[in-house]
Amino acid sequence: MAYGAVxxxxxxxxxxxxxxxxxxxxxxxVGGAGVIALAGAILGDLRVVGVxxxxxxxxxxxxxxxxxxxxxxxxxxxxxxxxxGIGVGATLPHSAVALVAAATVVGVVSGLVGALGANAPGMxxxxxxxxxxxxxxxxxxxxxxxxxxxxxxxxVIAVATLSPWLFRRGVLERQAVADVYFAAAALCTATxxxxxxxxRMNLAxxxxxxxxxxxxxxxxxxxxxxxxxxxxxxxxxxxxVAAVTTxxxxxxxxxxMPMTIDGPRSADPEVRALCDALTAAAxxxxxxxxxxxxxxxxxxxxxxxxxxxxxxxxxxxATAITVGxxxxxxxxxxxxxxxxxxxxxxxxxFVRTINRVCGTVLGAAVAAAVLWAYPTGFAVAIAAAAALGxxxxxxxKLYALSIIGVTASALLSGSIGHxxxxxxxxxxxxTVIGAAVAIVVGYLLWPGARxxxxxxxxxxxxxxxRRYLGEAxxxxxDRSRWQPxxxxxxxxxxxxxxxxxxxxxxPPPVGAAAGAMLAAATELEDVVDAITAxxxxxxxxxxxxxxxxxxxxxxxxxxxxxxxTGPRSA
Length: 570
What we know:
Blueprint: H1 3-13, H2 23-43, H3 46-59, H4 68-91, H5 96-113, H6 120-136, H7 143-162, H8 171-190, H9 196-212, H10 217-232, H11 238-253, H12 269-278, H13 292-298, H14 302-325, H15 333-341, H16 349-373, H17 378-394, H18 399-413, H19 424-444, H20 459-472, H21 482-503, H22 510-539, H23 545-565
Helix pairs in contact: 2-3, 2-7, 2-17, 3-7, 3-17, 3-18, 4-6, 4-7, 5-6, 5-14, 6-15, 8-9, 8-10, 8-11, 9-10, 10-12, 10-22, 11-12, 12-22, 14-15, 14-19, 15-19, 16-18, 16-19, 17-18, 20-21, 20-22, 20-23, 21-22, 22-23
Pfam family, one: FUSC_2
Keywords: Cell membrane, Membrane, Transmembrane, Transmembrane helix
Subcellular location: Cell membrane
């Protein structure tokens, strides 16, 4: 493996993004931490402050994006995982065999839980972290009080960061939907020019955010129509583009839809579909909700089981090393590090590992420096609050920066109520060992970890595109699985392209394989848009057979290109 390529991957993984700092949210988080410290002073028991700070430190990672409703659900999911883990860890026997067995089993469950839905990975991760705290956190509180005060810390962060929801109800949701209209208008303007591809990616991102915010049927129809315009490269009349922009402004202002469009009706079926999406003629069905049975089936797929086994093995190894190196009451850091690094369901394990390792080590170093000067007390509480604010402040910029604050705050919280008899340098050493376990067991030695991620392989996406094409050529009344087929084709195509782009930062051979596959993934996205244009022609009563044949040839060529690129499955 070329060291230069690895170094470039590391540098790329640690490159900050363009998003602004979350100053207001950071100030609210620090205020919440101050409330926790004040509560400890009033109660005269710093032990509860330590556990509450842990809850606050873990919670801030889940309130930095999305709508307020999504943030609340994320907080509830992580809190549920944590309190279950704490309860299990604090009540089970603390023999070496029991500790390792519990960590392994809970790690497997954590991986399976992570496949249940959008907030499930956070719940699974916090299940492992909670278990480690219950086993090694050294709190003298009974398990139910630990759960209670962890929940209190989570509640404080929820109040501090979600309080604007009371005065901005629906604002973020309307913004997400309006962004779809604005991105669609920009795509219509850019179609046929050099900026068209970037505009198409912006529309895909806006549509994903709108769906996460609850979705909007009309905005979806506008997005699909704009995608068909992009696929065919047809010009859109200026008055139609202006109408799309106006529609976005209406949504943002909470004004009623639909609207009317002046001018003659276009002969292009794609432009007609766009106009219909803005008027009463377009009332597409909402995207189907994921049934509970599908979520449960996702938790027992081959990939979910492999993720569970991977996390369980890493957590069991970390706990075994913890028991062998230290008294169990003084080693929370080591399994904590492994729990936050090894989450295979997140994109690009290597990039996540680099960010986690760098952020965790630096955060542990900050905590160690504070503990050298102030082993316990309110000085530690103040430092923990500042670290918490830093985590929220930098979360939009770079994952590693946020992890510095999260790690420092979580680790300092463990010393608020009692003096940690283990030297800070040994705590830092625990973190380094935990990172090594995660890298060696969870990455270097794990089968398939250094191959192209499953999401970046195009087999499933190509098959979904074929099914979507089969539906698109049917008259509207004869389409039996139109909505699911369209959703599946778009989701798999976008996911494959995103996975390839993320894997570009991986060291060889994954980065090279991702580079070879990226062109095919981009073509798959364009093919799916072309199928949407076929559907628009079918609905307009135009003979879509020539278009469908051309798309079928592109799919066949794509299959050949993917087959020539390399192995298609793990």
